[in-house]
Amino acid sequence: MPGGNPFGVHFVMMVEAIRTQGTDEQWERFGKRAENFEICGTYAQTELGHGSFLRGLETRADYDRATGEFVLNTPKLSAYKWWPGGLGHCSNYCLLVAQLYIDDEPKGLQMFFVQLRDEETHMPLPGIDIGEIGHKRGFYGVSNGFLGLKNVRIPRTNMLMRNAKVQPDGTFVKSPASVLTYFTMVMMRCVVTRDNATLLAMAATIATRYSAVRRQSPINPNEREPQIMDHVTQQLKLFPEIANAIAYQLSANKLWSLYHETYVDIERGDFTRLPELHNLSCVMKALCTADCNVGAERLRLACGGHGYLTSANMHLIVSSAAAACSYEGENTVLLLQVGRFLMKSWRAATEGKPLTPTASYLRGPARGETFGKWTGEWANIVAAIEYAAANKVRLAFESMSQRLAQGQTEAEAANGTGIELTQAAELHGRSFVAATFLAYVTGPTVSERSAALNRVLERLLELYLVHTALRHLSDILQVNC
Amino acid sequence: MPGGNPFGVHFVMMVEAIRTQGTDEQWERFGKRAENFEICGTYAQTELGHGSFLRGLETRADYDRATGEFVLNTPKLSAYKWWPGGLGHCSNYCLLVAQLYIDDEPKGLQMFFVQLRDEETHMPLPGIDIGEIGHKRGFYGVSNGFLGLKNVRIPRTNMLMRNAKVQPDGTFVKSPASVLTYFTMVMMRCVVTRDNATLLAMAATIATRYSAVRRQSPINPNEREPQIMDHVTQQLKLFPEIANAIAYQLSANKLWSLYHETYVDIERGDFTRLPELHNLSCVMKALCTADCNVGAERLRLACGGHGYLTSANMHLIVSSAAAACSYEGENTVLLLQVGRFLMKSWRAATEGKPLTPTASYLRGPARGETFGKWTGEWANIVAAIEYAAANKVRLAFESMSQRLAQGQTEAEAANGTGIELTQAAELHGRSFVAATFLAYVTGPTVSERSAALNRVLERLLELYLVHTALRHLSDILQVNC
């Protein structure tokens, strides 16, 4: 449903957050009511002034020891909550992310369960300034809202306290580990990746069907107009996107497997694979949403004027992907994180230290090994993409090193190397997708599929690899000259 | 006004078409009323089943000699008019493009002035099935409509008859030259090019201002959050698009000059430069709308979540550019036309025959001259782009020749070479833009501008050239190895 719905955030985020971050008592008191849709809520984090930089959020929750309450305030315009899905018209509660203060001392971001509207009349409660943020490019059904708070009081026991706690006397007990919160964000990126792979597949399906039904412009005069799919330029719009969609489906599945394995590891107290999963989820979310945005738009254009109509469903698909480039971690911000992970990996590779499996392709290039000969075989193309990625990682590392040697801080050097870092991250992600696709098509599951299906998958793999190599041809030519 | 308005087609197309294609009597009878907005109309050409392939239009106008009338019909669903701007709710007349038949003999497409709704009540007239085509990605204000006709009769004198004519006895007089109709399409492509260059500049302005106002994510911890423009990755999103916008503004102006010069030539009966203008308007329309679509979306993304709100105006700009990729000549169809023009030009170049000025860069490569040495100077980068373009033209020509030698028809060979033809056309257009930008910055107008402005323009030129060279780096590396 590309138009979205106003209860998605309620169910996927608010209910889950109460379940995982709230105490058992809190789950009984309001978690279950939310799960049963007796009340409807949202997750209110992003503000008008801050999205990517979480620590910059300005909504305050001051603990009042005298009454055992938190006093919630929106100190300035930029602190207004802005975007929460369903907040505009459909929420009577929310989980509010706010800076906790005790005796005016900041204690970091915490989550607070807050009633916004009367359960019977749906009228906003005193001190609550609430509404819808207006027309958007897409997500017409989501009712994104704004929220300001003025001296709104909630009981102490409405702060989610499975981890961090505020005791009645105002003593603050830190969360034993921030990994759980962090892990929810990893999970969301895996969800977004999978959803966008599906969106791209939907767009490819619509455009392909249209190209089979639509007839236009005879190739030979006096012959019947052909299905537009018979025009070679139309094939170039459709087929690579079909291959992209399959490539992302398979690598999103692989990411999910890794997520579940890591989840089990963490339950056992083993955090070894978390950095890899974290970075893989960042780069996959960024690449998949960006490629879905561009690819679905290309497919929409392949439907000519008809693709412009909402009834074709194409532009809502594009608009969903376009939104996904910005939410749950802005894509460039995510790629920069991955770039910094790759800097550590490159250093480890040059020092002969262990590498995470998906970065192990750096080892050879870090030792000075060269790509060798272009043969055009599948594994050879994957290796070429990996060498191109490693070369970008090396260039970024050299830029970082030079800047640090010139006396820049780590952060200044990273900003100055921002372009190289994002390019390295992009090719790193591309390598993962290509290697995953290759492993799937040539791996042990071959025997579980029909020969006909295997033939189709092999062609799609080849198309994906050739298309990706052409896309990064200048990067490949630079390591292959 | 990116949302468009429902009277644009009335004023730009219908009134102009009556003025240029109608007789003086017709202009007096209904042209002036339209010009004064006493009546409102649209230009109804595209049908549900046919857009790009004009000859495939199915709406019929049969001449009835007995009554001196045309009988207008929509013979099947696919013949419904679909898309005319303003038709949905705001037109009481239209210029209908239909296949003229006399005694069941087809006489080609003609334009007919038809009343659709009562001037007082606005109710559809008998035989008229009319309405709005539904929600679209953008152009919310345009009221695009559909139209079916069932035995609607109009007087013979309502066919626009400045050129082709139908006499009372049913004698058909052909248009002396189809150049005028054709020239209107050239003019429209020049308009679309200029408008999209402006749209890209608007998007760049909004995103740049936002990047100056918005502060987010400290570069060094404990320092104030910087303007987001200080993040290098943000600069990569903004600055190349500013350069693109200026490059397209300048080359759209150049195209306009050429249009006006050619107009004067044609008035004097000199058609020499028409093929060049025609092809230049095709490639400029295709490149400028495609780059505006992609570039404005990149700029929209640079505004984060705020760019998603309609109030930011960004997505309506993107949506306008997205529509422009399909209307007034679908971009791929236009590039294929230019590709075929380049095939003729390449043959002429290899045979030492004259070339149009904007294709003259083919001469050297056609003689086998090589690019020479990369110096990175402005003129050198322009030459590199031209050599890359010439190389693509050569590859397309070789593919065409091989296919023809294998016995394919010209049309089959052109379809099989479609990808090479569009790539050649794209680089041809890019060469024109780059050369135009270079000529403007280094040409005689330098002395008319302040030193400060010249410095800015020089930097933008350099950025444009470097960015374009990087974009086509693999093509350039292939001619420069």
UniProtKB/TrEMBL annotation, chains A, B:
What keywords are annotated for this sequence in UniProt?
A: FAD, Fatty acid metabolism, Flavoprotein, Lipid metabolism, Oxidoreductase, Peroxisome
**Pfam families given for it?**
ACOX (PF01756), ACOX_C_alpha1 (PF22924), Acyl-CoA_ox_N (PF14749)
Q: What are its GO biological-process terms?
A: fatty acid beta-oxidation using acyl-CoA oxidase; lipid homeostasis
Where is the protein found, in the record's own terms?
Peroxisome
Q: Which residues form the Acyl-CoA oxidase C-terminal domain?
A: 378-480
Task: Please name the GO terms that the record assigns under molecular function.
Answer: acyl-CoA oxidase activity; FAD binding; fatty acid binding
* Start and end residues of each Acyl-coenzyme A oxidase N-terminal domain: 3-40
- Pathway terms, separated by semicolons: Lipid metabolism; peroxisomal fatty acid beta-oxidation
List, alphabetically, the GO terms of the cellular component aspect. peroxisome
Query: Domain named Acyl-CoA oxidase C-alpha1: which ranges?
Result: 182-343
Cofactor(s) for this UniProt protein: FAD
* Coiled-coil portions: none
Identify the InterPro entries for this entry: ACOX_C_alpha1 (IPR055060), Acyl-CoA_ox_N (IPR029320), Acyl-CoA_Oxase/DH_mid-dom_sf (IPR046373), Acyl-CoA_oxidase (IPR012258), Acyl-CoA_oxidase_C (IPR002655), AcylCo_DH-like_C (IPR036250), AcylCoA_DH/ox_N_sf (IPR037069), AcylCoA_DH/oxidase_NM_dom_sf (IPR009100)
The answer, when asked if Lipid metabolism is one of the entry's keywords, is yes
Family statement: Belongs to the acyl-CoA oxidase family.
Protein name per its UniProtKB record = (Mediterranean fruit fly) hypothetical protein
